Amino acid sequence: MDFLWHEVTEEEKEDIRKQANKIIDDFSKQLSKVKLNEDKPIIQRNKGEREENDSKPLDLNKEIMFENAPEKSKDSIIAEKKIW
């Protein structure tokens, strides 16, 4: 695979920069031609924000977590590794 790699000269770097700039400029010109329908939003939603309530966050303590864990040691939960 060494034949695929070579030291890039300054001339090649400059050529790559010019090609990249040309690609970006061409893309920008094409993108500016796209007509957007900006007078109405694309996504319609009934509500914009969720309603706040006075409920407390869940009180999860160590005992509840350990009751739910299938495997555990003294003070840690043993989880599966890479079975997917």
Word description of this protein:
- The protein has a domain at 10-34.
- The protein is an all-alpha fold.
- The model has no long low-confidence stretch (mean pLDDT 82).
- The chain has helices spanning 10-32, 62-68.
- The chain is flat and about 65 Å long.
Question: What is the CA–CA distance across the termini?
Answer: 33 Å
Largest sheet: none
DSSP, total strands: 0
Shape: flat
Helix content: 25-40%
List low-confidence stretches. none
Radius of gyration: 29 Å
User: How big a fraction of the residues is strand?
Assistant: under 5%
Short overview:
With 84 residues, the protein is mostly helical. The protein contains two helices and no strands. The chain is flat and about 65 Å long.
Relevant terms:
single chain; 84 residues; mainly alpha; 2 helices; 36% helix; flat
Itemize the secondary structure elements and their pairings.
Elements: H1 10-32, H2 62-68
